[in-house]
Write a structure and sequence with these properties.
CATH superfamily: Winged helix-like DNA-binding domain superfamily/Winged helix DNA-binding domain
Number of helices: 6
Shape: globular
Radius of gyration: 16 Å
Oligomer: single chain
Distance between the termini: 25 Å
CATH architecture: Orthogonal Bundle
Number of domains: 1
Order of helices and strands: HHHHEEEEHEH
Structural class: alpha+beta
């Protein structure tokens, strides 16, 4: 997802910088990694990054991966309107892929309904090994 002019107008400078850092990243980033990358832009303390991330998550432009305490830019336009988002996370190389699965969304809606629960939002994280790591094709695994 790229940050178009209309979206940029709605973001503060810090939010736009954080989003751009995540969009350029090839892997999920922690708030402290983002802070380190943006120090030259005037970022001095973690709260600056956390405030920007909180808003970006709220509007659906960024997702928080709870199991690895990191963030990724959304790869599906209009994702903020989806009630369910899912990710595959490779335990070997750290590769993360965002999935948009309507069947999963409907299944979770059904489970919530049967439990008399009003589901607002859900994030599913699938942990395992990506195809390249399973086949031994991955050459450069991130540290």
């Amino acid at each position: 997802m790229t940050l178009n002019d209309a979206s940029r107008a709605d973001l503060t400078r810090n939010q736009a910088l954080v989003f751009e850092a995540l969009s350029r990243a090839h892997a999920p980033l922690t708030a402290y990694t983002i802070l380190d990358q943006l120090r030259s832009e005037g970022f001095r303390a973690p709260p600056q990054v956390y405030r920007a991330l909180e808003k970006l998550v709220e509007i659906g432009m960024v997702h928080r991966l709870e199991s690895i305490n990191a963030f990724v830019a959304c790869s599906h336009p209009g994702c903020g309107t989806h009630s369910t988002v899912a990710f595959t996370i490779c335990d070997i190389c750290g590769q993360v892929s965002e999935l948009n699965d309507h069947a999963l969304s409907h299944a979770l809606d059904g489970i919530a309904l049967e439990a008399d629960f009003a589901l607002r939002k859900s994030t599913v994280e699938l942990r395992g090994r990506c195809g390249q790591c399973r086949s031994g094709q991955r050459v450069n695994a991130p540290a």
